[in-house]
Design goal:
Blueprint lengths: L1 H43 L2 H4 L11 E3 L6 E3 H8 L4 E4 H4 L18 E5 L2 E6 L2 E8 L6 E3 L2 E3 L5 H7 L1 H5 L2 E5 L3 E9 L9 E7 L2 E8 L3
Antiparallel strand pairs: 1-7, 2-6, 3-4, 4-5, 5-6, 6-12, 7-8, 9-10, 10-11, 11-12
Length: 214
């Protein structure tokens, strides 16, 4: 009887070992699947996947007419650009968004658009910002040391913004007809909901506009 008990215990141990080894195999298999999944996630976040995103054009990298940044003062506007060609209250035009919108989402009723040489600037009290800049007359911008003006071609822009040029579109702009346009991001992490539209006419740079959704 004692011998029979020993044999039964021995058989039970062997059975347990087999089950344990099967469990280990399953766990090892699941580990391999998990690691493969993690590798796929890394690939999804890699630069190779994001390489087709349009380029970023940071406002701090832009200088207008070699004299002012996108944001400047009303005094600088007068001293550098002279008197505005015309002025319109923004409340009358009811644009989709204001550059100088208040933190609570409200808008100052006295905010204005200042127009000069075809370009449009937003004015709030003593603050001014470029809203739409046209490459008329001698207007130009420098971007990372590169001068862009009305003579700049699509091929010139392709050297700076190859991905955006690949995604170039033609749209019907009110009062302008069909224009080619590329879109540039405002920041690397896509924090901003807006973007920069860069328009071309007859293959040459025409104007740029900061667009922001309602």
């Amino acid at each position: 009887m004692r011998t029979l008990s020993i044999i039964l215990i021995f058989c039970f141990c062997i059975s347990c070992n087999k089950n344990d080894s099967k469990t280990v195999e399953k766990l090892n298999g699941s580990e391999k699947i998990d690691k493969t999944g993690n590798n796929n996630k890394i690939k999804d976040d890699s630069p190779e996947i994001k390489i087709d995103q349009n380029e970023v054009m940071k406002e701090e990298d832009i200088l207008f007419n070699g004299k002012f940044k996108r944001y400047f003062s009303l005094t600088e506007f007068v001293n550098v650009l002279g008197k505005a060609d015309s002025i319109k209250l923004m409340s009358e035009l009811e644009p989709c968004s204001y550059i100088f919108e208040n933190e609570d989402g409200s808008k100052d009723i006295d905010d204005k658009y200042l127009y000069k040489d075809g370009s449009r600037y937003e004015n709030n009290k003593e603050k001014v910002a470029v809203d739409e800049f046209r490459f008329t007359k001698n207007n130009f911008i420098t971007y990372r040391g590169k001068k862009l003006n009305s003579s700049t071609t699509i091929n010139d822009l392709k050297k700076l913004f190859p991905n955006a040029i690949k995604n170039i579109k033609t749209i019907d702009v009110h009062g302008e007809g069909n224009l080619q346009v590329i879109q540039l991001r405002e920041d690397e992490n896509n924090v901003s909901d807006g973007h920069i539209n860069m328009f071309m006419r007859s293959g040459k740079l025409y104007f740029i506009h900061w667009w922001f959704p309602c």
